[in-house]
Amino acid sequence: MIYRIISIAAFLIFAPLVGGLLSGLDRKISARMQGRIGPSIFQPFYDVRKLFSKQFIVVNPAQVFLIMSFLFTIIFTGCMFFGGNDVLLCFFLLSTGATFLIFAACITNSPYSNLGASRELLQMMCYEPAVLLACIGFYLATGSFNVSDIIQADMPAIVKTPGFFIAFVFILTIKLRKSPFDLSTSHHPHQELVKGITTDMGAKTLGLFEVAEWYEHVFLMGFVGLFFINKNPWSYLVAVIAVLATYFLEILIDNTSARVKWQVMLKSAWGVTLLVAGVNLIILMVV
Amino acid sequence: MWMIPFLICFPFVVSILMYTIRVNKIRNIITYISAGIIMAVVGLFAVQWIAGGCREMELYYHTHIIDMIMLAAVWLLMFLVTYLSFKHKRKIISLLSIIPTLMITYLELYGPQQAEIAHVHVDRLSVLMCIIIGIIGSLIVIYSVGYMHGYHHHHTEFQDRRYYFFMLLFVFLGAMFGFVLSDSLLWIDLFWEMTSICSFLLIGYTKTEEAIANSFRALWMNLLGGAALVVAICYAGYTTGNLSLSNLVELGALGDAKAVIPVTLIAVAALTKAAQMPFSKWLMGAMVAPTPSSALLHSATMVKAGIYILFRLAPAMSGTTTGLLISFIGGFTFFAASIMAIAQTDGKKVLALSTISNLGLMVACAGVGTAETLWAGIFLMLFHAISKSLLFQNTGATENALHSRDIEDMHGLIYRLPRLGAFMFIGIAGMFLAPFGMLISKWSALKASVDESNILLVLFIVFGSATTMFYWTKWMSKLISYTDTEIKVKDITKKDELLSLMIHAVLMIALCLLFPVLSTVYIEPLLVEVFGTSTAVLPMGVLLLLIAIVVFIFFVPLTAFRYATSIKVRQIVSYMNGINVGNNKEFVDSMGENKHLFMTNWYFAHTFGQRKLMRPCIWITSAWLVVMLCIIIGGAL
């Protein structure tokens, strides 16, 4: 019990730091890949500090409450996860959080924001199966949906669930809104959808959104790490390395690919899920 | 227990009154009173039975006279169907009624001596069904009084036959009570046919070309199911000599070969009632009728009859080929119908497809037939009954105000018709969002199908829940989108309609808050009754977590809302790439003129449309049904 409380407290305090640093690292590495020097690794913190020093600027007043609900739902999801609870329920709750974000985007009348919301919804449909299957993979490999049981397993889950892991990493690109699947938003605001889902968010609201993103990224990376953790203490080190490697891979994909159409995204995401995770599922269930 | 015959007979008596009284005002008052009486008696029945310790009861052993009356009623229904199918030049359909009626008559009069059985069986499942039918059904009846008034006000082209409409509603309720309380297969058959024919008559209410065509489609599909049921009854009568449903289920659960064919045929018959593929088209066609009848068919009656009988059969299907047959069809329907719902812009069509889809999940749960899946199935049924009834009634009321039920026209409904918009929001949230029970049922169904190693079902649920989320969120986001609040729409919802909607919304939220209690106090003992062993479906950890989530979800947005309304915000116009005109309604087009801005949703009609997907889906499920039936029946003979 005491470990759970410590773990939740650590998540609440350190997740924004880790999330912000990951985001800074992302920008730094991306810049180096593009032959630029790039901003400081702490730039995301400076950005958010500046956003919070502004007032609340909104198009529709309801945006503030929806974004706040989004943020707190994500935080609660993370607390559930790091408190050692059911992974399936965590992701169900995360979807509820994501719907708050979609509502916040479509409640304004901006075509960019609305289009971003529609596309975000489509992205959810693309990644949802792989996410649920990954949870089932943990259940089949360790006999439990609970994080606290999964980390006590004799063998890391990845041994039995490589297919689920590959599918999850594939859809992680969609979940992190990275190119080629950055349909709902783009990192470069001079494109056909401007900034998509966040177009009409500004000042403090955008700051809240950024913080929510940090929490979400830490949760997702925690889930990636969960594949590698077992009762051996050294497995935590492996997990950290695996998380960093996965994150680097996402940055690499982001910088080497161009945005695709939604049909390609849907087909490839569902195809990979069905082929890789599906085959893994059949093997685990039948054998 | 005077309440049992009262619940079955009282609606029939009222229906005769409804038909004879042609003065609207008097009839309306009687309708309110009768609906109130049904609700009160159901409540009394449930309370008294639960206070008496929830004992299983078997009643009515000697019923020779009633049996004969029922047989006469079956003949009456047969004459009605034959007359109507000759009148509308669909003679062949009458055979689906004549042949089963002759078979059942022969069995009863000249067949082998049957064992003496209790004709009525009361247990937790039937009481639960009674509560659903009594409460939701009566609320729909109350709603219809106001709705039908508005309906005939707007649709002057249809003949005002409200006396006939209300008669059918009450007959339907009576038949449903009879259906869920009977244990005798002969009684079940009569009530089964009665619900089929009631829904047929309700669908054809407006007498338009389309309504008649759709009503006959519903009729032949349901009569086909009825025919399968009659064959099952005759087979059981000749081989086991016992026409009690519970006896049949016991035999099936023990693995008796004699029970295989009847169980399979009854389950297939239930597929037609529950509108599963390949029989789902009748429910889609049922929307031509006035909204209350859709609400009734989709939530409290008709389709739930199919689900109820499958839940009864669940122990006999667990781990058998029949279970495989049923769970595949259910899972496939869940997935396929939810994909097709994406492409629909008509609100009622989305609701219909989502009913089919959700029923698919319940059917799959029954087909797997373990305590866990049945738990999930029962909760799905409960939540579905309430939120679907709410959504249909709400769509009807919205249609009366907007003169359209297109989702695109519901743009910003929450600002234009705040009450209806809010009810619709609650109803949709109940269908798929955490912490409402649908989601936790899905959790349980997913876990159980993994435990049972049902790979296909796992995949269907996983992909189906993704598509389900897509079409519901799309609709919800339409409701809250920014709109011109200056264009006023008059809310012409009647008081009785509002009352019904309000009670539904309260029930929805109460169920969400109370469902851990309901699970431990009522549903888990129910599973003990069915399976004989106790299982804690929800582990304590999950239960506590759920309570935390419920508290969180109700608390956080509320607090955030209060905070957000208290702070000072600066409102600006939305980003439109520099071609704003100063408000959010218009932009400057390339000719330099102001143009109205309107955003629509995605529907992908060419990718996910019914026109494209329905036929292959029907072929796949038909092929599966035929092949599996051959294997099961061939193996049992």
Structural account:
The complex is a heterodimer of chains A (287) and B (637). With 287 residues, chain A is mostly helical. Chain A has one domain (2-286). Helices cover 71% and strands 1% of the residues of chain A. Chain A has 10 helices and 1 strand. The model of chain A has no long low-confidence stretch (mean pLDDT 91). Chain B has a domain at 318-533 and 617-637. Chain B has helices spanning 3-20, 24-51, 64-87, 91-110, 124-154, 162-181, 185-203, 209-239, 245-254, 260-273, 281-285, 291-300, 303-317, 321-342, 347-368, 371-402, 413-416, 418-432, 437-451, 455-480, 495-531, 540-566, 605-608, 610-636; strands at 57-59, 120-122, 569-571, 586-588, 594-596. The relative contact order of chain B is 0.09. Chains A and B meet through strand 1, helix 3, helix 4, helix 5 and helix 10 of A and helix 19, helix 20, helix 22 and strand 3 of B. Strand 1 (56-58) of chain A pairs parallel with strand 3 of chain B.
Largest interface by Cβ-Cβ < 8 Å: A-B, 65 and 57 residues
Report Rg of chain A. Answer: 19 Å
Number of strands of chain A: 1
Number of helices of chain A: 10
The amount of beta strand of chain B, in percent, is: under 5%
First and last CA, distance of chain A: 36 Å
Helix content of chain B: over 70%
**Sheet with the most strands of chain A?**
none
Number of helices of chain B: 24
Succession of helices and strands of chain B: HHEHHEHHHHHHHHHHHHHHHHHHEEEHH
Overall structural class of chain A, as computed from helix and strand content, comes to mainly alpha
